[in-house]
Structures are given as structure tokens and as C-alpha cells.
Amino acid sequence: MSLSRFIVVLFLISGLSACNNRKPGQDTHKIAVIISTLNNPWFVVLAESAADRAKELGYETTIFDSQNNSAKEAEHFDNVIAMKYNAILFNPTDADGSVLNVKRAKDAGIPTFCMDREINSKDAAVTQLLSDNFTGCVKLGQYVVRQLNKSGNYVEILGLVGDNNTWNRSNGFHSVVDEFPGLKMVAQQSADFDRNKAMDVMETIMQAHSDIDAVFCGNDAMAMGAYQAVLAAGKTDRIMVFGFDGARDAVNGVAQGKIAATVMQFPVLMARTSAELADQYIQGNRDFAGKTPVEVILITPENVGAFLDE
Amino acid sequence: MNRPLKYIITILAVLLVLILSLDIQKLDEYKAGQTVAVFNATEYADDVWENKLPYTIDKAPEIITLVDFLRENKETAFNEYGRKLGISKTWYFLVRDKGVITAVEDEYLTVQLSNREQIRIATSFIFGNAVRDGSGVVDISVFVNMTQFNDVSIALNKRVKEEVVSYLKQSARTGMNLIFAGVLEINEDASDFNTLTVVPVKALLMDE
Question: What ipTM does this complex have?
């Protein structure tokens, strides 16, 4: 081989590695929406609101469903990185497990904006918009204490144990109720934020404990499932059901006296704001708060009227 | 140059490029580097309570001044004296003042200020983020996750209950003078500033 050919080979080798350094999305304007699951209407609203706002801002948008599966989520990140999206609007499956995916995207030059669920990292994502679950459940906890007159037996049905929201809500709730020795938790079990699982869990718990006054569920889907179990057992006049999300059926349930209270989140606001922040980033802005809590509102029979048409 | 030698040199060049682009590290070393120190919310809250809060209290407005300002120009008063977290309509105001205890209830004291208006000092249901977010010295961006951030609220509320509320519950009587500092929680849609409740962070009782 001549010297000139040898130099060409070296240039080819260096050229191949330089291809990986090309900035993502230089010739495209695409935003990926990666959602933990589309099997829950709440997350469908989150995904579609984010995608719609991104489209309004002029981006081509794709929704990726992780099906609550971290391997599926990693696959979506692989595809988004390979296809060189401009930004990711992300609803994680796992607060710890999802960090690596976000870091991979960051290393590939793709900014990530977390919606609703957080990852355990201060700097992997550009920013994280999160409902203030803890404070919402502090408010709910105080309401439960007053409704039970500081005394009674209650059940707690938790969401997905790998989701920080599960523990932020539980911790907020317990930061209040645990201060009242007259209130006793007779059972605590996860139903994975799933309505049917919650119904089964509540049925089983009611068989073991006949003297339950309330059940606190980490989301409204589980609250509706728990309510079904309470209804089937003929105990709706005895057991109060509390939820979290402010889902349409639960809010209606509060108005109808089926659900004692819930806490309303604002997924449309979070999703739209995430898309707008992504757009600002793409336009050159780099000044973002690491975390932005979004206030939630306690919905009780006293104020539910103002929320029935939302 | 003979062909085999050229091929060897080319292969070596490719290998050199590959090796230089890899960073090989022992797994144990990598894991050790990833270790995150365990967060101690109590220590953090103690530092806020003992070393930072006293300084911000010194700069806090009197309740009388704040309420007059709120009635005159609510938006400016919120922006000048209030603090809020993220996207929210709830604002927190660190305040201080003094007055006379006119009633001792189960969940609060009623205190009459020098302008004869009455406020409440909470002595029960000390929950939430008033102290953390009203203090102005706790920065959310330094926490890895919301659990750590919220644990600070719990720890600060514990200090309030153990040091201030227990003192008031034990010793407060109608007619006593009270010098206090604390945090007000006010919704930005509020228009009535007549019955405000302060979460106390400092209190000193004196006989009439």
C-alpha cells in the first residue's frame, strides 16, 4: 500500500468516529414523548397533552409507551438517540433505573424533561416537573384525621414501589396521621396503581379485618377499585375511601358521596409546560430550575362543585 | 513496503484508535465512585434552624406592616415579602411581632397585636412546608429527590413542635405578652387578611 492510501485509511477511521459527534436533530425538529404506560388514562392525558403542545410549537412528535417496563423504556431511548430527536419529554418507569437512560440521552446531546415522576439525579435531566405529592397528602392526611375525629382503623393501598410518587404520597400522609395515636394502620399493601389489583387487595384485607374505617389509596384508579370492593361488601356507610389524582371518575365520586376526598393534580399543565421548556431549551435557553413542584388541590365535598366541569 | 507488513500496520492503527477511544475501569472502582452519601434530613434541618433561620428572622417584617401592605398592594407585597415554590398559588411569609394572648384554644393561641388586630399562633396540626419554604434558606436544587426535600419539612416541623409548641402549650396563659416569629401561609387569591395563622418558629412569653 502506498503512503497516500495509508493516510486515507486513517482519515476514514477518524471520519467514522466523527460521525457520532454530529449534533442530534440538526436537520430535524422532533420531540419524543416517552411515557411509563398508556394503560392508565391519567398517563394517556399526560402523553397526549405533551405531544399536542409540542406539535403546536412546530415539532414532529412521537409517543413511546414503556408499558411499565424498564427494558422497553431503555429500548425507546436507544431508538430516540439513534433517530436523533431534539428533546425527550419523559415519564420514568423507575426513579433509579431510569437515570442511566437519561444520562445516555444527555451524552448524546438530547435534553430530557421529566414529567410527573422524578429520577434520582440532580443533573441528568434538564428539569423535572413534579406534582407536589407530599404536600397534597399532608393536606389529605389532615382531612382524614378530622373526618375520623382522630381515631379509627385505616388501610393504605400503595402504588408502584419503584415510583418515588408512591413514597412521597405515603410519607406526606404518614407525616400527619402517625402523629395521632388513635389512628391505626391495620394493613398496607401495594396494588401497583391498578384498579383491579386494588379491588382484589381490598377484598382480601376486608376479610382479615372487619373493623376498618377508612382506606387511603395512592391514586384514584386504586380508590375506585377499593370502592368497588367496599360496595360489594355492603360497607359504604362504614368505610371512607380516599384517593389521589383528581381523575374525572373520582371527582364525580366525591360529588356523589362515593369517594370521601381526592387530591387533584394537573397533568395537562405539567405536560404543556414540559413541552414549552423543551422548546425554550432548543431555542438556546439554559436557565432551568432542576425541579419544579406543581401545586395540587385537595378535593372534598365542600369544594368539589368548583371542579366538576374541569 | 511488503503487503503483510502494510496490513499489520493498518490493523495496528485501527486498534490504536479503538483503544484510545475506550476508557476501561475496574467494576469495583466504578461502583465505589458511584456511591452517594446518605442524606441526613435531621442534620440539615438542625443547621437551618440553628444557623440560618435566626438571620432571616431578623430581616422579617412585622405582621402589622405586612398586612397593611397586603391590603394596599397585594401583588407587590407578595413579590417583596413572600416566597413560593414552583408552580403554585401558595405563598409563605416569614414574619415577627409581639402582642397579648387573649385566648388559649386547643389548636391555637389568639394574640392581639398593637393595632388591636388579632392573629392566631398554631399549637397543633404543625404540618406541611411553611417553615421550610418560608425560611428562604432551603434550596430545592441541592436535593437528589423530593423525598429528601420533604424529609427536611418533617424535621423542621419536629423542631417547631418540640421546642416552640411544647413551650407554648406548657406556659401560655391569657393576658401574657408574647414575642414571636413564624411563617404565614397565604393563597394569592386571598382577599381577607383578618384571620391569619402563624406557624411559630420562635416564641418568648412574658408576664403582663
Answer: 0.83
